[in-house]
Specification:
about 350 residues; 10 strands; alpha/beta; 13 helices; globular; LRR_dom_sf
Length: about 350
Amino acid sequence: MPPRASKKPRRSAPTITADPAPKVRLGEGTSIDLPTELYFEILSYFPVVPFETTVHHSYDSGFHLNVKTLERQDALRTMSQVSRSWRAFFLPMLWENVEMAGCRSGPGTGGWFKQCADALIQKGNGLSKTPELAKYVKRIRLVMSQSSIHKTLPALKALMTSCSGLKTIHIHFAHSDTAKQFSAEFKPGQDSFPSVETLILPIQAHALLRACPNAKRLTCNRGRGSQLITAMRAGCKHLEMVEGFYFYQEDNMFKKLVKAAPNLREIKLSCLPSEDVLKKLQTSFKELKAIEFPGVYLADNNEAMERTMTLLKKNLRNCKVTFKANAYAVEKGTATTKVVHIGA
């Protein structure tokens, strides 16, 4: 006979459902309990990649900067979203430096030219519509390729127009065939950005220099620089420092610089010029107070350095002379920068 069926109803195992995790909201007083010094200590682990210099060995990937460049802005964005008080503290620091030359890596990120173009379009157009953020911007860095250039140049112009406190423009790289587009977008007499004081530009962006009449510091980071000298003569009357120009001898380019910026106070050369140029530096630039030479040309030749210093001491007065060692060599401890003060 088959076994008798149990009269007790069969019970199914109870279904266990997890309650949603409670949302934890930080009180507005949370950040007040932390001293300001602690915030800056945290941020010190996310250093700013300098906007006023051209060489970044740890970050440079050639046409663009690598993902490490974006770590600080990622950290600042995260902290600015914690609470209202944190937002008030970190938001100005987040938008003080607008980084558009850094690229991420990995699946789905796209090529460097597309990433840089998208960043410029998004941030340029976005800041032009949000003056409450644009007022914080002091420095911008970007890359200008042919990717969507019909959108990137107008976005750059809109960004510069909106940021009334903008001080530094750094174009890390520009494709060689973008000069005409720059000239078409930034037209002499129509566009002016008087707040800009420091520019780091490739020669393709010479039209942008014309639109910055109060520029004080100019660095040519790609090209010999003749186009920039022509532009500074047309629109920049207050330059105090130039860097990155090549003067092998007293050629037309040197003479053009003397006419374009006779009141220079500081010159940072990219090569060791001829004796004729060395003799005429201070007689050509009456206000010259500092000269910097690339130490790489002199590091292994003490006789050349001594000969150069002897010549400079005969022809300079009240001037600081710097033989700057290669940044990578300084990091490795294989070279040091030498500074000499020449008196009256």
